[in-house]
Amino acid sequence: xxxxxxxxxxxxxxxxxxxxxxxxxxxxxxxxxxxxxxxxxxxxxxxxxxxxxxxxxxxxxxxxxxxxxxxxxxxxxxxxxxxxxxxxxxxxxxxxxxxxxxxxxxxxxxxxxxxxxxxxxxxxxxxxxxxxxxxxxxxxxxxxxxxxxxxxx
Length: 153
What we know:
The chain contains one helix and eight strands. By secondary structure, it is mainly beta. The protein has a domain at 6-105: CATH 2.40.50.140. It has a five-stranded mixed β-barrel with strand order 1-3-4-6-5.
């Protein structure tokens, strides 16, 4: 059995580029940066950054190009692929990419509501009226208690 599956969460290093293939299918390209933290042999904390080339086809590519911007966070699910070609100077070139099956958009730089409501001065645990404060939206909870005998299963 073989498995080629990738899940990666990172921040875009530049705005996505949207192009059309000769067949008319749209394709978006962008790069995600991920960080890795480790300790060196002396025990000092170190950080390294990896850059991943992402390719997204069809409608998902159009949406990625429309909504993702440099610095945006994204979760990409897909597979790894390496392609090769002959450069004009005669050398062989290689590029490893993640071909995305699904892209989930995360927080955007400078977007309001990205903090956990610390500046609002309100508790996230809720008020006496039974509502809970959630950044960006209010959730209303029922006032009455739920009776377990009312649940049909």
